[in-house]
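Handout, section B. The chain below has 416 residues.
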Amino acid sequence: MRYSVFSLLAQAFQGHKGWTPVWRDPAPKAEYDVVIIGGGGHGLATAHYLASRHDITKVAVLEKGYLGSGNVGRNTTIIRSNYLLPGNTPFYELSMKLWEGLEEDLNYNAMVSQRGVINLYHSDGQRDAYARRGNAMRLAGVDSELLGREQVRAMLPYFDYDNARFPIQGGLLQKRGGTARHDAVAWGYARAADSRGVDLIQNCEVTGITIVNGRAVGVETSRGPIRAKKIAMAVAGNSSRVAAMAGLRLPIESHVLQAFVSEGLKPLIDTVVTFGAGHFYISQSDKGGLVFGGDIDGYNSYAQRGNLPVIEDVMEAGMGLWPGLGRVRMLRHWGGIMDMSMDGSPIIDVTPVDGLYLNSGWCYGGFKATPASGFCFAHLIATGAPHPVASAYRLDRFATGHLIDEKGAGAQPNLH
């Protein structure tokens, strides 16, 4: 069913009894052209673009739980393309452009809100670094604006400008950045892929990858074996475990990243803000909750929960930026598993095993990259060649030294 004002009116006159399921619940077939392991944002986006852009519809997306039960439903919903290095800037700008047309493409309300992203700076050195990043963005055709202290104060008057330990001196603004509803993104891609014939198979855990003469030819699952001409991995923090089924060791570590949401409040903050003197970022959801987060936990883990020291660190940073938060009650918090690559940038590439494709190493940037990740991964699977904007995301860059050191921290928690 195509959503429109006319379908809404028609259903209203029927008492809303004619809505159909958003996607099918098919049983797995014996063989597919492409099997995508992982039913999160990246896997579902890949399936959609394989079907819509490359006319490859004999595709199965395998998810061990329910669709969207991983990181796509466990993040702080921020979208932006304010990157510095040439390897990253064109990719994330493609993602931003896809975000801007996503709802029309999917015929689904993903609640994309381009409310702006402001990175605050607190020293002359940070100002110079942000000026450099802003200039690099403009040279790449990405919008940016360097703001002074009073310009930021006019936009965000409730922060501590006069008595703070780290006084706010200004910020770098990308007006086209903002947020999107994470669950709706997963549902929209799932519905769009299903409508083109892709099988979305839930509660189907991959337990092994079948390799014959050096080529991946199928997967073993909790619902039986499935043969495939091509197998694509998009499993975020579980990339190491799934890759190990094919005998691969990846240059990534898995860490927990916690996120938090407060009780619902009246409108307070109408943009996304990051604190330059500590790792803290905050926005307000459509429900009124303040959504915020900080650093990864300092140990390797596959658990979708965090620990108290990072909670304390995030709250301290939040209070340092915005003392008024001390009166707000926290409603809940959760954790997602980050696949932290050694240089802090992702991998979209073929693997040494023929027929096996890899999408991993997203670190903090997985949600904002969802459209471009699926778009470029689908291009790689369909054509066998990397998309031009993702050509730097090679797996062998860690052996050749062609790193994309955007942050300079990689997978080391003590440097975040």
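Note. The mean pLDDT is 95. Compare this with the example in section A.
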